[in-house]
What does this fold into?
Amino acid sequence: MKPIAVIVGVALLLLYVWERNEIVRAGYHIERLKEKKVALQRERNELRVKVSALTAPERIARAASDKLEMMPPRPGQVVLVRVSPEVPAEAGAKAKVKDRPAGPELRLAKYDVTGREP
Amino acid sequence: MTTRDPYRGRRIVTAFLLMLGFVLVLFRLFSLQVLQAEELTAKADRQHRKTVTVEGGRGGIYDRQGNPLAINMDVPSVFGVPASLENPSGVARDLARVLHIRADEIEKKLKQERSFVWIARKVDPEQGRSLERLSLDGIGTVLEGRRFYPKGPLLAHVLGFAGMDGQGLEGVERRYESHLQGEKQLVVLQRDALGRTVFPKGLNEQAPAPGHNITLTIDEVIQYIAEKEIDEAVAATKAKGGIAIVMEPRTGAILALAISPKFDPNVVKGISADRWRNRALTDAYEPGSTMKVFIAAAALEEKVMEPGTMVYGENGQMTVANTVIHDHEKSGWMTFAQVIQKSSNIGAAKTALALGEERTYRYLKAFGFGERTEIDLPGEAAGLLKEPKDWGRRSLASIAIGQEIGVTALQLVTAASAVANGGWLMKPYVVSEIRNSREQVVAQLGPQVRRRPVSAETARTLAGIMEGVVTNGTGTRAAVPGFRVAGKTGTAQKIDPQTGAYSPTLFVGSFTGFVPAEDPRLAIVVVIDEPHAEAWGGVVAAPVFRKIAEQALPYLGVSSRGPVRLAMASY
It folds into this structure.
């Protein structure tokens, strides 16, 4: 009876030691993952700042005018055409509004009809 | 016969020595485990545990579309341990190359007899990575939260900035400090022999909560438009500065608040307070003729005047309290509407004289002059509106033409919004929503009515008169093609600080108005401070109003009135 009790006792002790060891190992693993998470969060924030700086309206406007040679439309170059059953027949026919994608308003670029200098 | 044990003595000595050894060990154990237990436990704890203060990140600031305007980011701060450096000069040279700081400055720090010195705080993440690659002995980095304003100078005067230790020092950063700052928490870490963290103490412990995120009423695109146009106008007129505020008249929400010259909140070191002060709400100025709008509002409400009431212009010259008031254009009889449209000083003075001191004061006060608008930004000035008992004999006439009264640009646009929205004086605001890090709404801030200075009918009539200013008065350059614009020009002489009298050369040109006049979506004030050459508000400020409005209206999807003629369309 006695040897069995000793064996069980030693086994329990070994189990306890193994468990403690596993806990410590898992602890190190958790710490490593936490560090990785912090590093990834930092990288995400860094990218957010970059994206935000790159999408600044001033930069976009500069790129549009300098690189793409774009300019704001002159008065009369942009008109709003209402796409609804009440569209005047004349405008509808000219712009073939019916064939356009559906939407409450369509913005059409056109030549200046006002005759004014911008 | 008994044999004598020859080793007995030795055994006794050995047994005695062993006993003594055990006794000594037991005594030592007793001493360590019982007598010194408390002291040693504390010592072990000190070595194994480390208590650190952890702070949640500072909350972000976003525009109404969710575009980030201020974000926090952990960046490396570089420190040195002078005692462990063998070659400070060489290390300083290596650091100087990466950090772009003078080598002799770094060397001076590294030669100090101290155990720790900061070399550079909150440097660029890229610089931190370069330093890690160098792996210099005696040089280390720690991470600290740094405030970034990714759009640079955009909206700088409203955002303000945060200090080196992350506390808000100006603008929204300061006003909403309690919301923006992250939660502070003491955390106990268990360390092993190598100093690594062994195991998080209690997995259920929550990390300290980051600060709240703030959404502004400002629209980044309209802000950009306003800043671009005011900067261009200030440069073109060689003015000292300029202000443009765009407000939603129905709510009091500020869509843009631009001040020229601007500054970059990422680099505030060395910039004077004069440069980052939000002059739209801290500086009061004499508004000049824009004040006639509010005298007219009082006169219409009190039925002292009607748009068609005839007023005699005294051929451009009238004496009040032994001083002469001039009009820049000699006029005879004109309607009250023309008084405003032509910006007649004499007509405005006569209107105020007809109203009397008490009513004039009461209406100006009701429009919010001489008191803070209570905008949610720090440093607001109340302006200057003296009580009638402190007025001189000419004061009533002077106030009618915008002298002897100090207003801020913010007060002016708020009062103009009241005319635009049917008579309601709104409380201006820049923050619309505050959310915590779990995206739950903490506070929602909406429009607030302060009072109603005039009726809807008076506001409508006045808006009609103000439309005349733009169609055939002093503000024709504010006309926006396709839209009805209502507004008023203002040109005010500044007090010369040398003489204390009105300067013949220093002026403030302004324009205040709203568009579309029939259903106002934008109220805009433009102030150009000390323009060179021409200073008329109708010349220097009205075009800025037009440029802002004609870009902002299509952006907001506001359609122009009238039928559209389509000559040729292309897709």
In short: The CA atoms of residues 475 and 538 of chain B lie 5 Å apart. Chain B is about 35% helix and 20% strand. The mean pLDDT of chain B is 90. The longest helix of chain B spans residues 8-35.
